[in-house]
Write a structure and sequence with these properties.
With 120 residues, this protein is an alpha+beta fold. The chain has one domain: 2-Layer Sandwich (HIT family, subunit A). A five-stranded antiparallel β-sheet has the order 1-2-3-5-4, with helices on one face. The longest helix has 17 residues. The two termini are 23 Å apart. The model has no long low-confidence stretch (mean pLDDT 96). The structure holds guanosine-5'-monophosphate.
């Protein structure tokens, strides 16, 4: 695994309800909310509720139900945001080289404008 989970990270505080977020979806496994500094007309963050820093942690430790729940939540949020027809982007920043700032695994969903081609 990457690094120990830090309970004080901002998404942990949002998950505990200690700081507000503009929530768009929640279920047993997953919470989704609008990014505070949107980079596109739609910019939503989807986080698993479990304490995972990175995809490495998540893939190694999460149950199949958590992983499936998270994947389904991303699809659900994109659908509910009306992004399916025009398309959208799902992005993970992981670790140092990935430029990850918040050490709780999150998927970014971007949409609402042409996003350009981005492969690295
Ligand atoms: P990362 O670089 O870790 O992939 O992305 C972290 C994202 O979290 C950034 O897009 C940033 O704007 C967003 N963010 C940081 N702090 C907060 C916050 O307090 N609330 C919300 N809703 N988003 C945040």
């Amino acid at each position: 695994p990457t690094q120990p989970y830090d309970d004080a990270n901002i998404f942990a505080k949002i998950l505990r309800g200690e700081i507000p977020a503009n929530r768009v979806y929640e279920d047993e496994w997953t919470l989704a909310f609008h990014d505070i500094a949107p980079q596109a007309p739609v910019h939503i963050l989807v986080v698993p509720k479990g304490n995972y820093v990175s995809w490495d942690d998540f893939s190694a430790k999460a149950s199949d139900a958590e992983i499936a729940g998270f994947a389904r939540a991303i699809g659900h949020v994109a659908r509910e945001a009306g992004l399916v027809e025009a398309g959208y982007r799902v992005l993970y920043n992981i670790g140092r080289n990935g430029g990850q700032e918040v050490p709780h695994l999150h998927a970014h969903i971007f949409g609402g404008r042409p996003l350009g081609r981005m492969v690295g």
